[in-house]
Amino acid sequence: MQNDNLKSYLNLHLIVFIWGFTAILGALITITADAIVWYRMFFAAVFLALFLIYKKTSFRIPLRSFLKLIFVGLLIALHWIFFFHAIHVSNVSITLSVFSLGAFFASILEPLFYGRKVLWYEVFFGLIIIAGLAMIMNVEVNYFAGMMYALVSIILGVLFTLMNGKLIEKHNSAVISFYEFLAGVFFISIYYLFEGKFSVAFFTLSPNNWILILILASVCTAYAFTASVKVMEKLSPYTVMLTTNLEPVYGIVLAYFIIGGKEQMSTSFYIGAVIIIITVILNGIIKHKHKKALVT
């Protein structure tokens, strides 16, 4: 059991690294945020459908669960739209730094979803993370709009992570992801039909955009998202959200070397980011000692 947990935790770090690269792709793809999400969810659903057929996994799911998946799919679509829009109006570093608030929101909401008491150190570390973020916001006021979009995105992210934590108890992770992506495509398509946004131009992308979108949909979505749902069989949503706080670290470093210029931030930004990283590490240490004490 302990080895399974360690394997899930290491796998989660790989997933978070991939998510950090996702932000880079979002910055490099030159179409609107909602179009990115439509393509991302459409191709990810196709890849997962092929995978499920190959594995001879049943697509059948109870109606009650199906309705929940449709709702979660809407949350995911909105989460990614706000995420990519935040990157476009600010940059990767700012957007990912705001995502560090995920652990704080999870520490408040997870007890409500799972009926456990609020742990003081989760809230405490969440407040420290807010302090680190406040330091970033204080010096990077030009990116305030991007921060607000990122804030909405991470709140939606916490909500669908908590709901998937419940759904994975009864259903296959790939099946869950397939229906959620399909639902996201459905809702965005309905919006596009009403707005008349489907056109020849919408489906005419540059070769570079096609390549980046296919990487985004396959590795960064079909694989990473499904794997992130699966690790919740062993890890709590809070642990998942807390580890996700390392996404800014991976993403900011990658952005600095891949994108450069626009991603070079002030000294205070990096101090705030270091505070967030140290908080994540301390929380992991305390959580490990707490679990070890319960076992002994």
Automatic annotation (TrEMBL):
This is DMT family transporter. Keywords: Membrane, Transmembrane, Transmembrane helix. Pfam families: EamA (PF00892). Residues 9-137, 146-283 form the EamA domain. The chain crosses the membrane at residues 12-31, 37-54, 66-87, 93-112, 119-137, 143-162, 174-194, 209-226, 238-259, 265-286. The keyword DNA repair does not apply. InterPro entries: EamA_dom, EmrE-like. The lineage of its organism: Bacteria, Pseudomonadati, Bacteroidota, Flavobacteriia, Flavobacteriales. It comes from the Bacteria. It comes from Flavobacterium kayseriense.
